[in-house]
Design a protein that fits this description.
The structure holds two protein chains of two kinds. Among the domains of chain A are: about 90 residues, T-fold; about 130 residues, ApbE-like domains (T-fold, Roll). Chain A is built from nine helices and 17 strands. In chain A, strand 14 and strand 15 form a beta hairpin. Chain A is globular and about 95 Å long. Chain A starts with a helix and ends with a strand. In chain B, about 20% of the residues are buried. Chain B has two domains: about 30 residues; about 80 residues, N-utilization substance G protein NusG, insert domain (mini-chromosome maintenance (MCM) complex, domain 2), CATH 2.60.320.10. Helix content of chain B is about 35%, strand content about 35%. Chain B is rod-shaped and about 80 Å long. Chain B is built from two helices and seven strands; from the N terminus they run αβββββαββ. By secondary structure, chain B is of the alpha+beta class. The chains are: A alpha+beta, B alpha+beta. At the A-B interface, helix 1 and strand 1 of A face helix 1 of B. Bound molecules: zinc ion.
């Protein structure tokens, strides 16, 4: 009898403890998360860090973003890019960061047969994408401007840290700056002993480690035409996910057509080769950033061909008919929302 | 002594469990109602927290001299007007769920629904 009583009492106490615990768990869910908003590089950035040194790492990251923005800005006359562009063909000595980014951008340019070209700026400017005074340029001025676009004429002198472009050329790092910046921030975060963080630089997402509860980060790829709709979710750790799409920045001209900001360096017109969204998943933010632009420009067939040869990166491609192509490396980590057609791109390992 | 305890034991346990349940439900509800708060940040600085259960209309000064009029209505929040050129914040419409946010890039302003 006494045993029964004791058992009953201890059961009741245990039940109450359990209830109270589940309560406090709900209320006290702040496991040292530190969040920071940053407005830079014409975009909205968020940093989410966990652990003791979160705040310190976030502050250092912000300093780094500001430093890199100053180096890579096209409009700031003190920037490395402006120095190169204003050197009348004589070249300029620039920082190590600029050399690194330009070198990688040229590698990818030649790898993608010029689908990525960091000398496209004069054309982008003519379309008004840099000032938001949009217009459709006439074909004569476009072909004249395209004379000053060709990544093959950009030369990098690694010994002297010097970059030279022909007179009339203009470089910009719009397609690579955010990727490099997120790589640098993730480095800083790791160096400061933070083992769990998520960096989002205006859609360029990069993860340090896993979530603080040990699970993988979930990154959504949005519907290109309806941001509230998710196409698929990726489970990642220590990876970058970068998407290029024609819905990010576009204008509707008087002819009723939509024109977007990713220019095909071969035509000078917005790239219109079948894809409406190209996401690249890999360990380097810079590479993902550059390749997402390049794959978008290449269009469906060339992008699929490129992906089937490059097993070091993964990609999710969406064409105009809403067919989704996914590289086989994502088989285990992707969840496609119901109602969407998708096929895997199989590759030899 | 033992007899009294034995008689009391069952009702006591039941009462304790019920009391626990009631406390739990109350706390859960408190927590839920307090969940609807919007944080308004300009250039990363939190300038105000708005309880979404209290309808209000507020004008705030974003960066670059951009004024934004925000409205709290029936548990949601939206940008009624912004002086920004792109109006992306106005087009975003009303948000209600934790984690949702409205961003006005030119004004360096973020409105985010948070817990607490
Ligand atoms: Zn706005």
């Amino acid at each position: 009898m006494v045993m029964d009583l004791k058992r009953l009492l201890s059961f009741a106490i245990a039940a109450i403890m359990l209830l109270l615990c589940s309560c406090s768990e709900n209320i006290d869910n702040s496991e040292k998360e530190y969040k920071k908003d940053i407005f830079a590089m014409d975009t909205y950035m968020t940093l989410k860090l966990y652990g003791e040194n979160g705040k310190k790492a976030a502050t250092l990251s912000q300093d780094e973003i500001m430093r890199l923005e100053k180096l890579f800005s096209v409009t700031d006359e003190q920037s490395d890019i402006a120095k190169i562009n204003n050197s009348s063909g004589n070249g300029a000595v620039v920082s190590d960061d600029t050399i690194k980014v330009a070198t990688k951008a040229l590698d990818i340019a030649s790898d993608t047969d010029g689908a990525l070209d960091i000398s496209i700026y004069p054309v982008l400017k003519e379309w008004g994408f840099t000032t938001e005074n949009y217009k459709v340029p006439d074909s004569t001025s476009l072909s004249a401007l395209l004379q000053n676009v060709d990544y093959k004429n950009i030369s990098i002198n690694q010994k002297e840290n010097k970059i030279t472009v022909p007179n009339g050329y203009m470089l910009d790092f719009g397609s690579v700056a955010k990727g490099y910046t997120s790589d640098r921030i993730c480095e800083i975060i790791r160096e400061n002993g933070v083992s769990s963080a998520l960096v989002n630089l205006g859609g360029n997402v990069q993860a340090v480690g896993k979530k603080n509860d040990g699970s993988l980060w979930k990154v959504a790829i949005e519907h290109p035409k309806d941001k509230s709709d998710t196409i698929c979710k990726l489970s990642i750790d220590n990876k970058a996910v970068v998407t290029s799409g024609n819905y990010e920045r576009f204008f509707e001209a008087e002819d009723g057509k939509k024109y977007w900001h990713i220019i095909d360096p071969k035509t000078g017109f917005p790239a219109d080769n079948g894809l409406i969204s190209a996401s690249v998943i890999g360990s380097s933010g810079l590479e993902c950033d550059a390749l997402s632009t390049a794959l978008f420009v290449m269009g469906t067939n060339r992008a699929i061909e490129f992906c089937s040869k490059h097993t070091d990166i993964d990609a999710v491609l969406i064409d105009k008919e809403m067919n989704i192509y996914i590289t086989d490396g994502l088989r285990e980590s992707i969840t496609v929302s119901s109602g969407y057609n998708f096929t895997f791109i199989d590759r030899l390992k | 002594m033992n007899v009294y305890l034995k008689k009391l034991a069952v009702p006591l346990c039941i009462t304790m469990v019920i009391a626990g349940c009631i406390i739990w439900i109350i706390l859960q509800n408190l927590y839920k109602n307090k969940g609807s708060i919007a944080e308004v940040r300009v250039s990363g600085e939190t300038i105000m927290r708005l309880d979404l259960s209290e309808n209000t209309r507020i004008k705030l000064n974003g960066e670059e001299g951009i004024d934004i009029i925000i409205v709290v209505e029936n548990g949601g929040i939206y940008v009624e007007h912004s002086d920004c050129p792109d109006k992306i914040c106005e087009k975003k419409g009303r948000i209600t769920d934790t984690g949702d946010s409205i961003v006005c890039l030119p004004a360096h302003t973020v409105i985010e629904v948070i817990k607490k």
